[in-house]
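Holo model, 6-O-phosphono-beta-D-fructofuranose. Inputs:
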Amino acid sequence: MTNDPSRLLIVASNRGPVSYGQAADGSLTARRGGGGMVSGLMSGLGAVAADGGGLWLCAALSEADREAARHPELAAVGPGEVPVRMLDIPAGVFDKAYNGIANSVLWFVHHMLFDTPNQPHFDAAFRADWTAYVAYNEAFADALAQECGQGTRVLIQDYHLSLAPRLLRDRHPAARIAHFEHTPWAPPEYYQMLPDDVAIAVLDGMLGADHVGFLAARWADAFLDCCERVLGAQVTRTRAGAGRVAYRDRVTAVAVHPLGVDAAELRARGREADVRAHARLLAELAGGRQLIVRVDRTELSKNMVRGLAAYRELLRTRPEWRGRVTHLAFAYPSRSALPEYQAYTARVHELAAEISAEFRTPAWEPLILDLKDDYPRSLAACGIADVLLVNPIRDGMNLVAEEGPILSERGCALVLSREAGAAALVGEAALLVNPYDVSATADALHAGLAMQAAERQRRSAAIASAATARAPRRWLAEQVEALG
Ligand code: F6P
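Output:
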């Protein structure tokens, strides 16, 4: 590690590598942050920042995090001993920025999730949330400007921090800034649902960066289209998913960096005792039946309701599978403060209960739905799956689609939504489906269950090698290299 600021690498993201909980006696306990963005950085940052040193700047997400942020002696250390700095943003500002704008507006726009007869409503409440979102981005830009020296490279992550690249550029013109978007990007017709000033501010904010990255070519192309249509920027396309945007006084490069998985690291975790113990329990539960597995967050875009409906249709239309298959549907709770997520989770429980009531027998439980945060159990379920169901409506990438085949002991069939960024990476090795088409998803589940073991092995191995070729270290190194 050197003290040369131009070799320093700073990552900024909303969620960091650890978050804290507070025990009854007031003590703080640290736990690993979840999700694809954190996983990619956890696995890549140590190696990439090894020479010049690194820093991970993230937001305090809860009261326990804020408490920890006030005690520098508790400062967490990220991958490869990279120090972590948590920003203590006032709870009211954080809540409006995170729940009000990032999760309820930008996430919905990027995933095209609005139920348009009712949402969105861009009213006075939205304006108050937007003011908080600007303040939240300014807090990051201030902290980043403090940490940056001459030529420091800053990697800003995701839709929570769309404005931060421009705000940092204003404060520190010499910084080398990349923005990486882990979500899909909507075409201009949908994106322009945002109020005009907000639609412009988000694009302009991101274009404060030297380099803007996406997980799949279609998201990058949609972003370029928005820059052209909404900003009137001059866009040069070099190939699918890549180009340059000239806007205001600068040119920003746009490119695709698909995110894969470090297979050795993941398999090693999969061999640990806690995962093995879960695998034994789940195999006992299955009692020799085939397993259809899904592992998600309780997230609207993950499309759990249609996934369950497809399983029901499979059992209705192909009775030969009754008693011969069990569906493990696991998801860890997410964004439960939002009413849309509460209603959706209730619908998932309702449908699961209907399926059990329709098909269960004294000797067979067709579906085990469990919504809790249990990472070792998720790894175990992927390891013993016969069919893995990943059917999001839209998804930036979806790492479960890559991790499942890597963890799979005997090879699994992957039923994958063609609307996930991962579909471009794994291609025909998966059984690709239109996520809205419940019957086609039921057919694909059938094809996966009926597939010969050797064929499952072959497809799983192809997916694992495509994912491994894009390991997080490479994903991150490419972005750093793009900054020169
Ligand atoms: O952009 C995707 C992402 O950052 C993923 O990494 C993760 O699955 C999700 O969003 C995290 O959401 P949250 O931090 O709100 O739980």
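The first strand starts at residue 9 and ends at 13. The pocket of 6-O-phosphono-beta-D-fructofuranose is lined by residues 15, 35-37, 158, 182-183, 334-335, 396 (CB under 6 Å).
Archived with the compound record.
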